Predict the 3D structure of the following.
Amino acid sequence: MIVPATPEAIADAASSLRDGRLVAFPTETVYGLGADARNADALRRLFAAKGRPAHHPVIVHLASSAALPGWARAVPAYAEALAEAFWPGPLTLILERAEGVFDLITGGQDSVGVRVPGNAVAHALLDAVAERGGDGIAAPSANRFGRISATTAQHVASEFGDEIALILDGGPCQHGIESTIVDCTGSEPALLRPGAIGFEQLARVLGRPPRSPSTASPRAAGTLASHYAPRTQTRLLPRADLLGALGKLGKPGSHIAVLAHSVNQPPSFEGTWFDAPSESAAYAQQLYANLRALDAREADEIWIEAPPDGPDWIAVNDRLRRATHRG
Ligand code: TXA
Ligand code: MG
């Protein structure tokens, strides 16, 4: 059930979480599907609802960094600097886990992912959970495993139907793509998942660019080759290839759905055409909603004009590569 995120609804949601139920809620990145992070039964229900393999860890959302000692046994100085600069906000830190953190959360690894979200509803929910004796909300993105993340309450409902008792509606998410994940378990920070906080923002705080993950880095589901994928066959085409392919279509016998940010719809084109923003933050904010809407057209293929290669586009290009991966 979708309910507007009023103070009363947030209080009910917090009580539900403490009773072991699942609640979907908005964050500044994407919607999360939440469970009480200290309740093993609730966590099992979470994995079942998502259809997520048990060895994929989930992020714990905290009301503030004051809660960190219960979750992480060591916080290197560079991680403290990142938390100081970007929390509350769209950054997830992977830290050495504290004693007592469930394997269900860590995927059996010796690390835990934590973040303090900045979205007002998420924040109020975390405070209300804490007031009821709780300690953090474990929340993956509110989509079925491998599918497109949800950036509105309606997207969440279309993924899970009646399976979730409560979906708090806080409107469309501000960033529209997931948090940036930085592995802070080594002597040097490593970027595990590009996201809402850009590479250059991280580098500015760290005083150096974060390194790329090594093969020894902890697993991150968002780093699977195929993820965020529409059901419709989807291709990423550089601008010139898109123009060439459009030129060859003529009167299409097939239905093509296009997402373009610089190419204009040709007058003769008879398929589905979506214009995406040409600026990276706005493009990202609308990306998952666009992918869902394109998929819903049930076209024969989705063609996406490949965005530029610049640093501002790293996270968007990462998601598009995984959304279009075959095999
Ligand atoms: O923006 C976000 O991060 C959203 C909102 C809801 O907070 N959450 C999200 O969760 O994207 P999810 O489960 O879809 O992706 C979390 C990623 C996964 O790739 C997971 O493998 C990684 O975080 N992760 C979590 N804990 C980890 C750990 N201990 N080590 C390595 N990766 C971890
Ligand atoms: Mg996800």
